[in-house]
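User: Sequence recovery, please. Input:
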């Protein structure tokens, strides 16, 4: 779900970039480039097959960036009144809200490849250790257990072949 959220943000940011470039002739290209850069970062998170920790970190970092920039824009527009005569602080608050939502999604939404429980992953990693069979054979004086290459699961009787 987190990767889907990142992909949806890519589509939204590309649409905003194109609309800004067309509708805002004076600053549209700069705003459009900033949104396209954000879309590229979210595209990396959404479409890459990286580890879930990297995807979560990228999405959370972009969310915190949007939160901080949105709050700074809102404060600058409301207090100092530039560059549009004090108008536009609402846009900063919208960016801050989007950043907060993005950070919450980075923490709460599961990635699509997190369907295997963490305990099972740790057990599988333990079975892949080269010393596991050696230690087991020394403790029980039994034959070294191997990993079944056809299904990728450990065939050790204590773990129960799945």
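Assistant: Recovered sequence (162 residues):
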């Amino acid at each position: 779900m987190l990767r889907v959220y990142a992909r949806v943000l890519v589509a939204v940011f590309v649409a905003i970039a194109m609309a800004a470039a067309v509708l805002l002739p004076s600053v549209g290209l700069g705003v459009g480039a900033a949104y396209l850069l954000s879309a590229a970062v979210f595209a990396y998170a959404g479409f890459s097959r990286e580890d879930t920790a990297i995807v979560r970190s990228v999405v959370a970092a972009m969310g915190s960036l949007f939160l901080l920039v949105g709050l700074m824009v809102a404060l600058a527009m409301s207090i100092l009144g530039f560059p549009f005569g004090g108008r536009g602080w609402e846009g900063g608050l919208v960016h801050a809200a989007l950043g907060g939502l993005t950070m919450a999604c980075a923490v709460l939404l599961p990635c699509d490849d997190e369907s295997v429980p963490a305990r099972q992953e740790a057990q599988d990693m333990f079975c892949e250790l080269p010393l596991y069979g050696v230690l087991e054979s020394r403790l029980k004086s039994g034959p070294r257990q191997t990993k079944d290459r056809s299904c990728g699961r450990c065939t050790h009787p204590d773990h129960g072949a799945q």
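Residues 2-108 form one domain.
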